[in-house]
Amino acid sequence: MRTGKYITQLKGDLEYKAFIPNPLPFEIKIDKEFQSLLSEADQSLGRLDGIAETLPDVDFFILMYIRKEATLSSQVEGTEATFADVLKAEAKIRDLEIHKDVDEILNYINAMNYGLKRMETLPLSLRLIKEIHKILLTGVRGEGREPGEFRKTQNWIGGGPSIQKASFVPPPPNEIMPLLDNLEKFFYDKSPTPILVKTGLIHAQFEVIHPFLDGNGRIGRLLITFYLCQQKVLHKPLLYLSDFFKKYKQEYYDRLNAFHEKDDIEGWLKFFLNGIIITAKEAVETSKKIIKLREEDMKRIFTLGRSVNKATLVFNHLFHTPLITIKDVEKITGLKNPNALALINKLVNLGILTETTGRKRNKVFAYERYIKLFEET
């Protein structure tokens, strides 16, 4: 097979078979369907990259997408915390209903932001991957599984405590570093393989190597965005595929499994390209809705007379943190209560803010129409 082979490990009752992937690159068979998907994916990414020029503040748009990506990528791995939990936690709003594993998502956000910033001075590399992994697992479930270190023991997927019953056994520890070195070289390989094909191969190969004891899926999905940015296919980190992978979770796993089990490289890559097309188009549509929403609400704010300037300060803040309290408004505007509350009430009356708690004290207000644009699937 092009992707690799199974090698028997140990003997007798302890015997099991581990998959040893072949080094990249693999030979790809590109038919008309494949070529058509590749062309459409390229065009979709081009349009997505262009929205950075049209959004009022693309970094706030990216921040919301990173929050969404972190939530969905973590949910693929079984995390139960929601997008709303993340917004509350980041806004430091105390809420007993926030799911305890929200910290895993916050770590993902920190890892993503750290990686994107770090790539300004450090190339995409094994070193960077280890640094990101350490942030991902520090202080949460999995923190005892060697954060920031490639594994030195055998791991497996499925089968509970029995490796003999596992659904997949990645390569043994002694095979990992040569495979990872090859993967790192492939990041910078000058062969004519299309970048989007390389990106799909990098994600699949990383998952097959499974180099960490925990967090492989999340790191592998982060690599997609990092690689597209490193290759300047995207000038801003605007593509996040976890929404697509979660919607088609079983097919996602089946395609990755068929990649090494049946040598179906093309099946995986077509699925991956389709994900890029769908996700990029959705992001472009969301950006258009944000521009329209901002224009509509700014027109409403301009009706506030002498309060326009203070209201605009609050409004701009909502694109960064769409949940807000009276104390937040005091800090943003320099107003004291009851003037801060009066300003919030004006934004509520305009239909921009909505009170979310139903409480008389410690009220929390949300820019709900903006939040819903990122919750829509």
Overall description:
The protein has 377 residues and is mainly alpha-helical. It folds into 2 domains: 4-286, Fido-like domain (Fic-like fold, Orthogonal Bundle); 306-375, Arc Repressor Mutant, subunit A (Orthogonal Bundle). It has 15 helices and 5 strands. The chain has a 3-stranded antiparallel sheet. A two-stranded antiparallel sheet has the order 1-2. β1 (4-9) and β2 form a beta hairpin. α4 (102-118) runs antiparallel to α5 (126-137). It is elongated. The two termini are 37 Å apart.
Radius of gyration: 23 Å
Can you tell me the CATH superfamily of the largest domain?
Fido-like domain
Number of strands: 5
CATH topology of the largest domain: Fic-like fold
End-to-end Cα distance, whole Å, is 37 Å
Q: Could you say which overall geometry the principal axes of the C-alpha atoms support?
A: elongated
List the domain count as a whole number. Answer: 2
Oligomer: single chain
Uncertain spans: none
CATH class of the largest domain: Mainly Alpha
Helix percent band: 55-70%
Give the integer mean of the pLDDT values.
92
Order of helical and strand elements: EEHHHHHHHHHHHHEHHEEH
Kindly estimate the percentage of residues that lie in beta strands according to DSSP: under 5%
Which short descriptors sum up this protein?
15 helices, 2 domains, 57% helix, 377 residues, 3-stranded antiparallel beta sheet, mainly alpha, single chain, Arc Repressor Mutant, subunit A, Fic-like fold, 5% strand, two-stranded antiparallel ribbon
Briefly say what this structure is.
Helices cover 57% and strands 5% of the residues. The chain has 377 residues and is mostly helical.
